[in-house]
Amino acid sequence: VFIAQSRASGSHRDLEDEELTRIFVMIPKSYTEEDLREKFKMYGDIEYCSIIKNKTTGESKGLGYVRYLKPSQAARAIEECDRSFRAILAEPKNKSSESFEHDYYSNNTRQEPRGTTLPFCVQPEFCSFEKNESRLQESVSKRLSVVSRLPFIQEQLFALFDLVPGLEYCDVQRDPYTNSGYAVIQYSTAASAIYAKYKLHGFEYPPGNRLTVIFLEDGSDSSE
């Protein structure tokens, strides 16, 4: 059973959507909000951009926020923007932004190993991937593998993953020896697959049974 919050109640958007539409980036101190918008508008519809400034001097700290209208747009921006921006999902507004900014800046200005071009995970709870998984360990694709200790029912699993737009197919397979569940899910875009993995990895379905969701190679060009 899925319980949806009415959009008429409280905020104009779900709180969890709000947490998945705002990204945090490192930028040159010379950037204006217009420069920031110009760099990130290609990934989706931007609701607002803001630059974090020193409260005393008014000087840019070289950090900023970009808020998109859709979580899939924020996911696309994180994956496709230049690695120098070190984009990650921003902490919710109700948490301490100053400590988040400090941790992000101190972690992202460390010396990186020679040859490494991808950003380090700042802290696991701030990243768009699960704990102990970094982008260096995982190749993003449009296809997902779903594993469960209980067998899946095709229609139910399809309905679950169809909550994320762009589902192309859901292929449920069963191991006759272990009776565990295994399925391959494919979306029309990598952004949808990223969002589905973020939302459903570790999700209990049915209650008490955690799903394991990982990316599968789909044969496409990884640079896409």
TrEMBL record:
It comes from the Eukaryota. Residues 21-95 form the RRM domain. SMART domains: RRM. The keyword Membrane does not apply. Keywords: RNA-binding. GO terms for molecular function: RNA binding. This is RBM45 protein. It comes from Sakesphorus luctuosus. The lineage of its organism: Eukaryota, Metazoa, Chordata, Craniata, Vertebrata.
